[in-house]
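We keep the chain:
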Amino acid sequence: MLIKVKRGWELPESAATPEDIYLNRRQIVKALGIAPAIAASASVLPAGMAMAVTTDKDPSVRLYPVPRNEKFTLDRPITAESDATSYNNFSEFGSHKQISHAAQQLQIRPWNIIIDGMVEKEFEIGVDDLLKQVKLEERLYRHRCVEAWAMAVPWSGFQMSELVKLAKPLSGAKYIAMQTILASKREMPGLRQFWYPWPYQEGLTMEEANNELAFLVTGMYGKPVRPQNGAPIRLAVPWKYGFKSIKSVIRFTFTDEKPKTFWEALQPAEYGFWANVNPEVDHPRWSQASEWLLGGPQSERVPTQLYNGYTEFVAHIYPPDASDIYFR
């Protein structure tokens, strides 16, 4: 079955426009009566539409903001929060990008996470109890969607290797399979798309999961992560295409068998297990050589970087002559 997908380099972090200035500028533009033209140029919801949702009911709100890890910096401006929270892929809420309103139906507490499979002892832990056992920090990461759009986000969370240590995997474990919550069709109306292989599942090798870049996200922009962005806990693996960064995770299973992931099960010729970003390996239906930066004009594109610019962190994981590690 064919699934239809809709279709600055070297800028120091200091050059990024601060969020408060950006939002004030948007208000000025709106007052001048030209906001609709700007919104149309980016093909996203008008700025601020998703901002009406507050995070004050999230019990973890008191934990943020968290200290920034300066090792992880950006070569481009931080994407405006209003754009990053209003232009989202989350198939469980719909097959379009404007799912931020529908996603507020997701019940993010109580939220228990299952750790099972090849571990010393299987267990279940509440997300708030998990947050007490890890070191939270902020990291600035690039995010590259397979659809050739990109953003730059200040994620908060903890290194995935910390969860691996808590899980105490057996020596024979080679992979970690992850699963998104499977809620009711009322909470997640996208589940009515019966042709999808629900629940959403993803996976990493143990070496990938223990890499310092692999990050479990619990917050963004100095606040708890929003439902549309994967609350209350999601994955960020910035050297891979975005569909690998599974959202709203409820299970981590340690296994010696390579997981059959959601998009790989649906369309293996287009969405493989590895999904490492490579500008020289195109998607079967479009080029990956360049990308559109979310919030800017779609006509202005920048070159895609190998491993999304994180070669120094991850190249040692993969054989240099293995072409299948990039896209499929």
Observations:
- Confidence is low (pLDDT under 50) at residues 1-55.
- The first helix runs from residue 19 to 31.
- The chain is about 15% helix and 20% strand.
